[in-house]
């Protein structure tokens, strides 16, 4: 049995370019699909957040239109209710990467607010990358990679990866409201950004870095991680 660390946003809002606080958190499907896959396979889950705060679900991710109708909402809600780890996160500041066999970062707009500038997450990512520990990062969560360039060039420069695209951000209605766009920042970081069709499952694997573009990519990303676990 492997031990998998879920590194999750502690933010409950995303600050837009005009200073408006957009309510957000983590995207439900990006937590529940991998959580269900990993636990079904018998693996252990630990959740870490900045300060050990209980993570906030983005209520937009529980809407029938994006969650697969009433049955989809019911399925997602059942998994969230069963995931007791959500109510008992550890402090990200105290995490040791070598205690885990893999790291997984679910998205939602929350990581754009906190993990994008969090030095503890950056150290964790850098240590896991150097040690060859599988890193699964989906949708907006690759924003956490930006913090690894705080003191210079990021060790993720040159890695092939994907993340929520500018096209998807525009279709979601936030591209003209955001202070910055994730795709643009990842390219500026030096990443070899790859984009698939909007909203379709798309993952990229480069060495021990596994990335998914959008919510629909979370289940395929979990399946890819299970293959190496």
UniProtKB/TrEMBL annotation:
The keyword Chaperone does not apply. InterPro entries: Class_I_gatase-like, DJ-1/PfpI, Prot/Nucl_acid_deglycase. Keywords: Glutamine amidotransferase, Lyase, Stress response. Residues 29-227 form the DJ-1/PfpI domain. SUPFAM superfamilies: Class I glutamine amidotransferase-like. Gene3D superfamilies: 3.40.50.880. Belongs to the peptidase C56 family. HSP31-like subfamily. This is Type 1 glutamine amidotransferase domain-containing protein. It comes from Nocardia aobensis. The lineage of its organism: Bacteria, Bacillati, Actinomycetota, Actinomycetes, Mycobacteriales.
